[in-house]
Amino acid sequence: MPIVLFVSVFLIAACGLVYELIAGTLASYLLGDSIFQFSTVIGCYLFAMGIGSGMSRFIARGLVARFIAVELMVGLLGGFSSSIMFLAFAYTQAFRLALYALVIGIGALVGLEIPLLMRILRDRFNFKDVVAHVLTFDYLGALGASLLFPVWLVPKMGLVRAALAFGIVNAAVALWSTFIFKDQIGHTGGLRASCAVVLAMLGAGTVFADRISSAADNSLYSDEVIFSRATPYQRIVLTRWKDDVRLFLSGHLQFSSRDEYRYHEALVHPGLSAVPGARRVLVLGGGDGLAVRELLRYPNLESITLVDLDPEMTHLFSTHPYLKQLNGGSLLSPKVHVINADAFVWLGDHSDYYDFIVVDFPDPTNYSLGKLYTTAFYRLMGRHLTHNGLAVIQSTSPLFARQSYWCIAETLKQAGLRAYPYHVYVPSFGEWGYMIASAEERGVYAPPESLPPGLRFLTVAGLRELFDFPTDMRPVQAEANRLNDQVLVRYYDRDWADIAR
Question: What is the pTM of this model?
Answer without folding.
Answer: 0.79
